[in-house]
């Protein structure tokens, strides 16, 4: 359903890539669409066929990943602030409790009998301070637990986004019948073993549409892998088991590994 909504937005604003991006961004902000839906939309047939013609789907994908990453960063900062707040609240609650207990334990002798030294009004105030300090500490702890839950959810969302994105890219390249050619992803040209600079340049100008699609797609794969390497590496074991398997296309593996600065295994 969410994929259909994104498709409708893209179709409605087909003449304005800016408005498409803004609308999808707002919908992500309101949590109307998920990152997973965006990944599925980006790798839908209508977008796959235009990978070499427009960067829009990739930019929307980057924006979705950025939002999750920023949310994770913000939550970690908030949790750090709450941790400091808990320490301060603990100290305040302990101090208020000690003041109340000290005042309550003070006795004086009146007519030969021990009686409360502090006035009832002051004891009542001190007891109120201690209770409020404890309530404040409990409130901060509850906020901390809530933020922990949100952080775990965001981390899980990021894991699903990264693994699904890699899997969808792999499936896209597998079904695209990528030509068997040695692609220089740094320079964006194909090299079929010709050492002549002039002839190589001529070959690059004569690259067909399908080859250009492959070059562009692999270029985006490498760029995203480099940009979000810090978010990809924590899930590398899952990706190795589910995506970077023996049947993966070698050009896709090379693009991802280059982006991650990871050595390509020897055949």
UniProtKB/TrEMBL annotation:
<dbReference type="GO" id="GO:0005846">
    <property type="term" value="C:nuclear cap binding complex"/>
</dbReference>
<dbReference type="InterPro" id="IPR027159">
    <property type="entry name" value="CBP80"/>
</dbReference>
<dbReference type="GO" id="GO:0000339">
    <property type="term" value="F:RNA cap binding"/>
</dbReference>
<dbReference type="GO" id="GO:0006406">
    <property type="term" value="P:mRNA export from nucleus"/>
</dbReference>
<protein>
    <recommendedName>
        <fullName>MIF4G-like type 2 domain-containing protein</fullName>
    </recommendedName>
</protein>
<keyword id="KW-0175">Coiled coil</keyword>
<feature type="domain" description="MIF4G-like type 2">
    <location>
        <begin position="3"/>
        <end position="107"/>
    </location>
</feature>
<dbReference type="InterPro" id="IPR015174">
    <property type="entry name" value="MIF4G-like_typ-2"/>
</dbReference>
<dbReference type="InterPro" id="IPR016024">
    <property type="entry name" value="ARM-type_fold"/>
</dbReference>
<dbReference type="GO" id="GO:0000184">
    <property type="term" value="P:nuclear-transcribed mRNA catabolic process, nonsense-mediated decay"/>
</dbReference>
<feature type="coiled-coil region">
    <location>
        <begin position="86"/>
        <end position="146"/>
    </location>
</feature>
<dbReference type="GO" id="GO:0005634">
    <property type="term" value="C:nucleus"/>
</dbReference>
<dbReference type="GO" id="GO:0003729">
    <property type="term" value="F:mRNA binding"/>
</dbReference>
<dbReference type="Pfam" id="PF09090">
    <property type="entry name" value="MIF4G_like_2"/>
</dbReference>
């Amino acid at each position: 359903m969410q994929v259909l909504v994104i498709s409708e937005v893209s179709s409605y604003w087909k003449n304005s890539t800016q408005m498409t991006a803004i609308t999808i961004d707002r919908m992500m902000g309101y949590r109307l669409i998920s990152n997973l839906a965006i990944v599925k939309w980006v790798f839908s047939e209508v977008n796959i066929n235009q990978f070499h013609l427009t960067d829009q789907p990739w930019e929307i994908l980057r924006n979705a990943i950025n939002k999750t990453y920023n949310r994770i960063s913000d939550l970690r900062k908030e949790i750090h602030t709450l941790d400091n707040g808990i320490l301060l609240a603990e100290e305040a609650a302990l101090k208020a409790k000690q003041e109340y207990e000290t005042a309550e334990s003070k006795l004086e002798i009146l007519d030969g009998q021990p009686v409360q030294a502090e006035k009832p009004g002051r004891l009542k105030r001190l007891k109120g301070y201690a209770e409020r300090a404890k309530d404040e500490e409990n409130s901060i702890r509850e906020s901390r637990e809530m933020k922990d839950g949100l952080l775990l959810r965001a981390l899980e969302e990021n894991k699903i986004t990264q693994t699904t994105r890699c899997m969808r890219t792999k499936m896209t390249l597998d079904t695209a019948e990528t030509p068997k050619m040695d692609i220089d992803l740094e320079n964006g040209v194909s090299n079929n073993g010709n050492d002549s600079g002039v002839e190589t340049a001529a070959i690059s100008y004569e690259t067909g549409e399908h080859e250009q699609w492959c070059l562009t797609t692999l270029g985006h794969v490498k760029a995203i892998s480099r940009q979000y390497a810090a978010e990809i590496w924590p899930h590398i074991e899952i990706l190795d088991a589910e995506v970077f398997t023996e049947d993966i296309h070698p050009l896709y593996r090379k693009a991802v590994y280059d982006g991650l600065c990871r050595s390509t295994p020897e055949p």
